[in-house]
Design a protein that fits this description.
Helix content is 30%, strand content 28%. The protein is α+β, with helices and mostly antiparallel strands. It has two domains: 96 residues; 173 residues, Aminopeptidase (3-Layer(aba) Sandwich). An eight-stranded mixed β-sheet has the order 10-11-9-8-7-6-5-12, with helices on both faces. Strands 1-4-3-2 form a four-stranded antiparallel β-sheet. Helix 2 packs antiparallel against helix 3 and helix 4 crosses helix 5. The longest helix is centred in the middle third of the chain and has 17 residues. The protein is globular and about 45 Å long.
């Protein structure tokens, strides 16, 4: 079964049939299967079925037999349950079902190995925008700028169960053409390169990232969280307004010239809680 067919099966039926894997599993006295044995058993089922790596990984890392873990597939979160059958050879019965995303997601500073990850997120977002007829970001990601922001500690990765959900960059860099002195540009933090991957869409991850950035601005003693958006992407502007941002002005000669701001510390509270792992 391909990954696409498997995801469609989950969507249509709510869960996939349980499948049985016959593998030799070494068990510790605590009843926990050793990681190599369990991972080998899971892969023998998961890889031919096209189940994504993120799901395999979340199962294999020290799962207790008889308990559950959550991972992500093309259709969104899935929960896996692994049980051991008392036979001559240990048999792992693995069932897969749809699950809700966890109530908390994690945001951490990006590291050098994330530069290409963030660039690929940009490229994926660019393709998705093009499919919707929006001309935003129809050029390659600037690896140089991403690397610069990672080096400054201002670029972040958002993930859940080790699966990347998106990225955001938050800094004090105010574009002087956008925010002149009368706007008191030093009194704000600025969110850039805000990307939510398809696997997380519809789960208010973007709202969580903005709430996290708003709290960060408040902790830094700023009055505002500000963003600039693509002038021709009206949907994005409406999204920010639904998140409590106010349209300040539009700079017509710049592609990303629609400017919005929200008071620091204001949160929407519509998404999962965001746990920040600051450097």
């Amino acid at each position: 079964m391909s990954a696409t067919a498997w995801a469609q099966d989950i969507q249509e039926r709510g869960r996939t049939p349980s499948r049985t894997i016959a593998v030799s599993v070494e068990k510790a006295s605590s009843g926990i299967a050793t990681k190599p044995a369990l991972e080998a058993g899971i892969r023998s089922f998961a890889e031919p079925a096209g189940i994504p790596e993120g799901v395999i990984t979340c199962i294999a890392h020290g799962i207790h037999l008889g308990t559950s873990r959550t991972g992500y597939a093309e259709s969104g979160p899935v929960r896996v349950t692994v049980t051991a059958m008392p036979t001559g050879r240990n048999v792992l019965r693995t069932s897969w079902e749809r699950a809700q995303m966890s109530e908390r997601i994690t945001i951490r500073p990006a590291v050098s190995s994330d530069v290409d990850v963030i660039a690929s997120m940009w490229d994926e977002a660019s393709r998705a925008l093009a499919q919707r007829g929006i001309d935003q970001w129809q050029y390659p990601a600037s690896v140089e700028k991403i690397s610069r922001d990672v080096g400054r500690g201002t670029a972040y990765i958002v993930h859940d169960f080790g699966v990347n959900m998106g990225t955001i960059t938050v800094d004090e860099s105010a574009d002087s053409e956008f925010w002149p002195p009368e706007d008191m540009p030093a009194d704000a933090l600025y969110a850039h390169r805000v990307i939510v991957l398809p696997v997380a869409r519809g789960r208010s991850v973007g709202a969580s990232m903005l709430d996290w950035a708003s709290r960060k601005a408040q902790r830094a003693g700023k009055s505002w969280l500000r963003v600039d958006t693509w002038r021709t992407n009206a949907q994005l502007g409406h999204y920010y307004q639904r998140q409590g941002f106010t349209h300040v002005r539009t700079v017509e000669h710049r592609r990303s010239g629609a400017l919005y701001q929200r008071p620091a510390g204001v949160i929407s509270g519509t998404g999962p809680a965001c746990v920040g792992l600051e450097a």
